[in-house]
């Protein structure tokens, strides 16, 4: 096993929200390299987007995503359980771009998130549609409703654990028909990518929306 893997960090375009300095970026690259992770693809050069990540089956997903965020100097915002934003951990979570949400009282979150995204000059909002690391057979629709209400595209990102690759995939323009668009979005992910495949549900899409190729950049 190699002691170091080149993370192959892509350059962000001039319109993408940025954050973090060189030291944080070096830390992210170092952690990716010693863990054997690399990046395929890149973010589209657009100022506002909803970035969804899947499969989400382990706490390692957050750590891996954090390393990528730091290494790429992405100014992305993400949503986290409000209990994680207490004490010193809360300071770190906010520095990383976290936004606390109380899931037991989340009324109005979609509307508020869409408003902030719509009114921001640059903003990348990161969401995990599964909403949990545990097995679930239904994605939460908040990511889609936020994108539609804010008038922004949905960008796909996948954790491919067997290859140790974070893949930035295609840009999806939501049509407003969630039931039709969802199978096409989900078809880019599969249980074989996950750290814990037993926690990921692979739904079948209707005949009217044939599956797209799995989320993978050309070798």
Number of strands: 7
Radius of gyration (Å) = 17 Å
Number of separate domains: 1
Task: Please give the oligomerization state of what you see.
Answer: single chain
Q: Note poorly predicted spans.
A: 205-211
Strand order of the largest sheet: 1-7-6-2-5-3-4
**Individual helix count:** 6
How far apart are the first and last residues' alpha carbons, in Å? 21 Å
Largest sheet: 7 strands, mixed
- What is the typical, i.e. mean, pLDDT? 88
Classify the helix fraction into a percent range: 25-40%
Q: Categorize the overall geometry.
A: globular
* Helix-strand string: HEEHEHEHEHEEH
- Which class do the helix and strand fractions yield? alpha/beta
Amount of beta strand: 15-25%
Keywords:
single chain, 219 residues, alpha/beta, seven-stranded mixed beta sheet, 6 helices
Explain how this protein is built:
The structure is a single chain. The protein has about 220 residues and is α/β, with parallel strands linked by helices. The chain has one domain. About 30% of the residues lie in helices and about 20% in strands. The protein has six helices and seven strands. The protein has a seven-stranded mixed beta sheet, sandwiched between helices. Helix 1 (about 20-35) crosses helix 2 (about 60-70) and helix 4 (about 110-120) packs parallel to helix 5. It is globular and about 45 Å long.
Kindly summarize this structure in a few lines.
This protein has 219 residues and is an alpha/beta fold.
